[in-house]
Design goal:
The complex is a heterotetramer, with two copies of chain A and two copies of chain B.
Chain A: E1 2-4, H1 6-20, E2 24-28, H2 44-48, E3 53-55, H3 60-72, E4 76-80, H4 91-98, H5 101-104, E5 114-119, H6 134-138, E6 144-146, H7 151-163, E7 168-173, E8 182-184, E9 197-200, E10 205-209, H8 213-222, E11 230-234, E12 237-239, H9 243-253, E13 256-263, H10 268-279, E14 289-293, H11 304-307, H12 311-323
Parallel strand pairs in A: 2-3, 2-4, 5-7, 6-7, 10-11, 10-13, 13-14
Antiparallel strand pairs in A: 1-8, 6-12, 9-11
Helix pairs in contact in A: 1-7, 3-4, 8-12, 9-10
Chain B: E1 3-14, H1 25-28, H2 34-59, H3 77-81, E2 87-89, H4 95-101, H5 106-112, H6 138-151, E3 157-162, H7 169-181, E4 185-191, E5 194-195, E6 198-199, H8 200-203, E7 219-224, H9 228-243, E8 248-253, H10 272-279, H11 283-293, H12 299-321, H13 328-333, H14 341-349
Helix pairs in contact in B: 2-11, 2-12, 5-12, 6-7
The chains are: A alpha/beta, B alpha/beta.
The structure holds thiamine diphosphate (TPP) (2 copies) and magnesium ion (MG) (2 copies).
Residues 162-164, 192, 194-195 of chain D line the site of one magnesium ion.
């Protein structure tokens, strides 16, 4: 056991999987000597060589497209996209090829690839360095979409993703890369894809969230009156959704708040809300409340915190929903 | 010296078998044997016939949109130069090469009949299915070649695409990655003069497509694309270079004798003069002339071959047509190695449940409504 | 008045706007002599010259990116993307530039561009020629997203889009390009962006849909018992959503079905469902039902109709929702 | 002739003012006047100082991540060759050119202070804001130039980007569109040897970046990027060509003397020897030597200038810092020409309503629940 940050937990998972399996290869911009702009891959090139930790040309479609090609020919590729905003140039390769090859070839060609991408706001970064595009990829068939909210989960989920025979996007909430530490076992372990985590149990209201918002939600709950018993669910996996855990919780509590950083309209909150009312209709005592980013771009950093649904906004939403 | 030469380049064009069937014996040395030429001729002729039949199948509603390969059959030569372990990463106008490399021809028909099983590449065959999005698959070839290098196995990835495809950004990134990673990849740009209705001169101001490879430090070459010898030789040399970490871009000058696809009518945008001129350069005609000049071919042999090819093509069509219908469960089960629960639910209820989505949906028969609504 | 197909109505709108405004320019693959693969731009190059109806190189990012540049320098650009699947390579330019310039520059640089894209399934086309990505773009701030379901609306909406000072995506449901004709006025007129259309009034249940699905829904309604009074709403504009029209209707009927071709998860149906339960919670007599494509790719055409939520599936959903 | 030459190309490198400040008078004819050189020197020095101050502002938490331009100031020359009506479509290492073309320098600071108003290009100035996504903005320059041509107005679009940027597919598509559309565009590739930690040799196997332009039939040129004369002359000639429908790609050989940004530490990946060698080629040093050799500069003039530049930079920083805070309503109102109703609702309730989203949400106080739930 070591007390690790999210960055360190990811680095450890990568190290151990590369150690265990020669066919694991990391590629991306500045992932080598520089260890990536967030130092997530620090030390890996020195350890495994520049043929397994590869600095690529500055071309996201190229990174994604060759990672797909690598994966089709015996390499478990781990492309890194430097910031979620730069998934844009890689979008076509990811959704129209990476996600599709298995289905397109009825299983003859598969793409065991894990795309690592820092995601989300709150770090005072420039434009396109603070977005939350997870709903886009949840809507795209053929991809598994993961986002941990803690060092422990990060390690276990990343190992699951790397070993998964299908393409996974592993979103890393950059705001909490170094925000706190957690005990993380030395040994390899997996956290299953598709299983949400009940962070706190409760009986009055269910909060569903994921990624860095999990921390905001915990903070929000700390500010609420003692007698309001809130159940907090961290989805961990965005697709496939762990519908059963959500439904079970809301059937118990009768109330639900969904919180995410991404814009409101057609965000993943809409899906959770729709699912909940479909499956818990007769249990619902209040409309499912969404507390989200606005239908605008993440503003430049001077107003970043006005955009993000920080803990106080989450707390208000919970209070309003509970009082309905 | 304030002005000096920073860079210089020269690109060569190669033709070995000319339009009249005359061979340049020097250049032809160590390329195709007589047997191979005869085999290629028969194979290319079979492909031509398959194309004609596919056209008819489309017109009679038994096949979807189909892109004829007519006029570009000489690309088959690449498959003779390639080794069993090499990869083919194709677009849709190199059927002739794919079949020779081992793809059962009915797969191509099945694909165009709207059936994913046409893309189900048989085990042991290193090949990707035809790429529908243009200009995007060359990156996979770059990755595949790179993987071979990483794994220390001797494989070359051949990828094929048209003149139009070179305008996509992914072409650029594929060539650049192959160059930087010193990956064993050979890029075949089949320049047939058109991208649907867009002529070559609207596609780029570059004088050749070959020169596009200079941007990546690739080896580059332009060859007569209707010349099985030139293509073979270029591929042979490219394999040697690829194995030494030097990818090659080869531009083949050819022509699309048919419409873009069966949904297209080339007369809307293309001069008949141009087509007539191109017909004289048909890759089949010149091989036949050559074989005849060497007394390797005759009218009798031709007749016998035509009969054999009819049977072959009928057979291919039969295999494509007589396959059992696909299962709707495949739509779901092919998505992931293990089908996630909600997706399985969609699969299992698609025919029985009204929405095909929510058998679990709370209904009035659900016995435990929440007190607030009771 | 003339009796026109959808294709003809679009062609007419383009002709008239090009006639009226010299700065309108069409660009795309094969839009010139060939008139586009669906012949939507037929005759326009002959009429307006090859400097105003421009065959471009085969490069969607290039088409989108230069269309943005054109629009920033005085040209009302109308890029055509040949099929919705090929929005992939243009995605980055569209969402990270086209949609953003106004906000990024606080109004100093604007992009009056209308992206035309054939969309949806049902025409026996190959892979990537039958998708419905509208939810992706509804989730993307800064874009107006339109999809007509009739020749009359198509003409009026396209004219609105071309005249709009901001980037619009004009999705053309290819399945009904030539499926039927409608009286379309000769004169120019506009159909406002952001206004849904009540196709049929009703009091028992609201169906919300758009594009080619509108026809499936009409067919479904024809098959229902006479005494079930269904109100059919065609959104026409996907973003900004006409929330008021939907809410008013469901507050009246108490029941809602949403139908779309795109996959279920995180599709636009989720947004409608979420909105409806937020704003009509106390009126809802049944959960909002979604009848949609599955969370898979649109299969190749042999099984295309098994995927699409055709009229019978819509009718079953309506019946189930009404019976709840 | 079965093998013939299909294509040939030669690319020249030009330097006019060498590292020692020695000028090639022949090449320099009709380029910069003495006054212009003095002005450029003062301007470049001001930019250098601004860079140093920006670095300090970042370290003291008053500025976000900032990419220093240090060492690449000679690009300012382009703005002297450009006309008022020409467009600048930049990345982030050509501040010196943008300021000369008319951009108030505080705009750049404002941008990096996390304020969109830094991108609010003043009316009448033909310029785009710095592009954050790398290698994607050159397409806008291609479109802008093309628009000028369509409208029959005399404008040239200058676009700037780094060596790394040329690996993006959009670079390829931008050059190709400019070529095909014969658009008045000049592409400046500032090759500073690095893309963050990625050295030039991992970026491409091409021997020069200039040769990438051959793929599109562009005019191509390589120049000393620390030489204000060579850059000026290349830009001058490129304008003439651009107006004649011939876009140019110019590779400028320069060096990034600082870290990639304030978030970077170049010592992690870059040899100090390389940096030391590059410092000797500093564009400022050689201009000063040149001016001194012509008796146009002196230690006194230098001191006076340093004082002036201090004041100028203090002024710029004051203007960037003293601006009133942005309004949160801007987040919403800048989205569309007319704010749609739901977005206005989000704006109007963001501070007052718990969710900032649904003031209209049905609440228990809503007086008309449906009978079924009554
Ligand atoms: C990304 C993408 N854009 C557009 C299309 C539509 N399309 C199909 S084939 C084709 C032309 C291809 O031209 P070329 O690369 O020269 O190949 P050819 O058909 O001539 O063999 C186009 C534009 C597509 N399939 N994919
Ligand atoms: C599309 C995209 N990918 C990655 C990045 C992250 N990034 C910012 S600057 C940079 C390197 C740019 O190198 P180069 O083009 O040579 O310009 P330089 O910084 O050397 O001036 C990278 C990778 C980005 N901003 N945009
Ligand atoms: Mg072609
Ligand atoms: Mg650089």
């Amino acid at each position: 056991m070591a007390n690790l940050t999210l960055v360190q937990a990811i680095n450890l998972a990568l190290t151990q999987e590369m150690e265990a399996d020669d066919s694991v290869v990391i590629l991306g911009e500045d992932v080598g000597l520089n260890g990536g702009v967030f130092r997530v891959t620090e030390g890996l090139q020195q350890r495994f060589g520049d043929h397994r930790v590869v600095d690529t040309p500055l071309a996201e479609s190229g990174i994604m497209g060759t990672a797909i090609g690598l994966a089709m020919n015996g390499i478990k590729s781990i492309p890194e996209i430097q910031f979620e905003g730069f998934l844009g140039p890689a979008y076509d390769q990811l959704v129209n090829h990476g996600a599709r090859y298995r289905s397109r070839t009825r299983g003859a060609v598969t793409v065991p690839m894990t795309v690592r991408v820092p995601v989300g706001g709150g770090i005072h970064a420039p434009e396109l360095h603070s977005d939350s595009p997870e709903a886009i990829y949840a809507h795209t068939p053929g991809l598994k979409v993961l986002m941990p909210s803690s060092p422990y989960d990060a390690k276990g989920m990343l190992i699951s993703a790397i070993r998964d025979p299908d393409p996974c996007i592993f979103f890393e909430p950059k705001r909490i890369y170094r925000a706190f530490r957690e005990e993380v076992p030395e040994d390899e372990y997996t956290v299953p894809i598709g299983k949400a985590k009940i962070v706190e149990e409760g009986s009055d209201l269910t909060v569903v969230t994921w990624g860095a918002m999990t921390i905001q939600c915990i903070n929000a709950m700390d500010s609420l009156p003692e007698d309001l018993s809130v159940e907090l669910i961290d989805l961990r996996t965005i697709y496939p959704l762990d519908v059963d855990t959500i439904v079970e919780s809301v059937q118990k509590t009768g109330r639900c708040v969904v919180a995410h950083e991404a814009p409101l309209t057609a965000g993943l909150g809409a899906e959770i809300s729709a699912l909940v009312q479909e499956r818990c209709f007769l249990h619902l005592e209040a409309p499912v409340q969404r507390v989200t980013g606005f239908d605008t771009f993440m503003p430049y950093y001077k107003m970043e915190l006005d955009y993000l649904p920080e803990a106080p906004r989450v707390a208000e939403a919970i209070t309003a929903c509970a009082a309905y | 010296m304030p002005i000096k030469v920073a860079y210089q380049a020269t690109i060569e064009y190669m033709q070995i078998l000319d339009e009249q069937g005359v061979l340049d014996a020097d250049l032809a040395r160590d390329t195709l044997t007589d047997d191979q030429v005869v085999m290629l001729y028969e194979h290319m002729s079979m492909c031509r016939r398959l194309d004609e039949i596919a056209f008819k199948l489309q017109r009679s509603g038994r096949l979807g949109t189909y892109p004829q390969n007519m006029g570009q059959e000489a690309i088959a030569s690449v498959a003779l130069a390639a080794r069993k372990q090499d990869w083919m990463v194709p677009c849709y106008r190199e059927n002739a090469a794919l079949f020779l490399h081992g793809l059962p021809p009915e797969k191509i028909l099945q694909h165009w009949m709207g059936d994913e099983r046409g893309n189900q590449i048989p085990d042991g065959l290193n090949m990707l299915p035809m790429s529908i999005p243009i200009g995007t698959h060359m990156l996979h070839a770059a990755g595949i070649g790179w993987a071979a290098k990483l794994r220390g196995i001797d494989q070359v990835a051949f990828t094929f695409f048209g003149d139009g495809s070179t305008s996509e950004g992914d072409f650029h990134e594929a060539c650049n990655f192959a160059g930087v990673m010193e990956a064993p990849v050979v890029f075949f740009c089949q320049n047939n003069g058109w991208a649907i209705s867009t002529p070559r001169k609207k596609q780029t101001r570059a004088e050749t497509f070959a020169q596009k490879g200079l941007a990546y430090g690739l080896k580059v070459r332009q060859v007569d694309g209707n010349d099985i010898f030139a293509i073979y030789k270029a591929a042979q040399e490219a394999i040697v270079d690829a194995k030494a970490g030097k990818p090659t871009l080869i531009e083949t000058l050819t022509y699309r004798l048919g419409d873009h696809t069966t949904a297209d009518d080339a007369r809307r945008y293309r001069d008949s003069d141009e087509l007539d001129a191109a017909k004289k350069k048909d890759p089949l005609i010149r091989v036949r002339k050559y074989l005849e000049s060497k007394d390797l071919w005759s009218a009798d042999l031709e007749d016998a071959m035509v009969e054999r090819n009819k049977v072959k093509v009928d057979d291919i069509v039969a295999r494509a047509t007589n396959i059992e219908a696909p299962k709707t469960s495949d739509i779901f089960d092919a998505m992931f190695a293990t089908t996630p629960p909600e997706l399985a639910r969609q699969r299992d209820t698609m025919h029985t449940h009204s929405l095909g989505q929510f058998p679990q949906q709370e209904t009035l028969s659900n016995p435990t409504p929440h007190p607030a609504h009771a």
